[in-house]
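Contributing new records

If you add data, match the layout below exactly. Sequence lines come first and carry their own label; structure lines follow with theirs. Keep one chain per record. Anything else will be rejected by the validation script.
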Amino acid sequence: MTAEVARADGTELEIAGRVVELVARLAGASAQAEVVVTRAELALTRFANSAIHQNVAESAVNVRLRVHADGRTAAGGGSTVTADGLRALVERVLAATRFTPPDPAWPGLTPPVPAPTSAGWDAAIAYAGPDDRAALVRAFVDAAGGLETAGYCRTAFGASAFANSAGQVAQGRTAEAAMDGIARAGGADGTARLSVDRLADLDGAGLGRRAAAKARAAADPVELAPGRYPVVLEPAAVADLLQNLSWYGFNGKRYAERQSFAEPGVAQLDPAVTLVDDPLGAAGLPFDLEGTPSRMLTLVDAGTTTAVAHDRRSAAEVGAESTGHAWVGSPTFGPIPRNLRLAPSGTAGTASTGTAGGAGAAGGAGTAGAGLPGGGGPAAPLAGAVADPDTAALVSRVQRGLLVSDLWYTRVLDPKSLVITGLTRNGLWLIEDGRVTRAVRDLRFTESYPRALGPGAVLEVGRRAVRQPDREDGVWWEAPSLRLASWNFTGGASG
């Protein structure tokens, strides 16, 4: 990262204030303006064939302006923060308001209200360089024991500030490190990924051992007939459920348009399920794109849907208040939970401890089978299929079913009921009498995610959550393993 990190304090807020003043000067006091200024430092080290092949870093300042004037709304952005550059941005956005259609549903600006302070951010992430990320990649590759590996290591830091013409101001910092890698053995892949708030918690060796153990255990898979099977979903697979529930279920825009399954006040999911969006449980921003303070939001409490995510516009449509979920894509895609956590067993309703994504969560081959009956697991190399004691405990209580490492290529067939089709990947195993007995070829599934988590369908929730990174930095999905009564597999990966 660059020296810009050290100069971030105050600078963004000063720029935001100058833009608000410019709007008032050029458009008059009746114009409503909101400004977000973000200084972002993002770096990515990619590796393939067990060697680093790319290191990229980006340092940028972005100014986003939205203006409501004469009943019309327009937005725009720029990266030039000189006096001329800011004036040009304001003039462009004001000109755009004259050509946009009237906006009678404009919800107004966020009024002045205190925003929480940022969670502590890790200076090691902010100042991480290529050598730091290369060391984590080396640890991953070495721990894979000669298997072919690929993936990335990412560090991201941001300083943001908000100001609007109603007098609301807020500022904060974010920091995240993440690693996502695979190991390959004889055409079989194993994966391990993790998102953390402290660079010291990113255990490259632990992730490499886990991915390699999974790959070795996935070799020589057998065909299995499609049908409904009890399953144990590992955290990476559960993350896909959380992501789709966020985009299509707890999305305030879709809810207002009656395109969501969510019905607040109704017991729609199993009592074992508590879902919390927790942006302040990690090093996230304490405000959203409209300046609304961020907070922990319980979406499902012991199976009962309690809320959906709103920005100011979707909230106004249903007579609610913003929950602080405005983001760049809100006007098009709607406000969504972007830091969704499935509460582990025994921790429902509590804030994230920050240890869920720690080094210990990466697991390793040495823990495989630790929770199986009698203290023993399946014979090597199948032992690597069950990579941590928490998952092993769930597997031990399955008479016949499947252990699913990961889901991908998931597509929505019916948004209202959230029927999804997709594929398993990176490891699928048959469980018999509480033990993994053989690797299985990937299967296609078609399943309603709310049904799969519905009343009576969740047999057990693991006790240790693992934070999974998203493609976008700052977005994560945190969950333990799940034991579900049924999952609908409809065919092989080829059809």
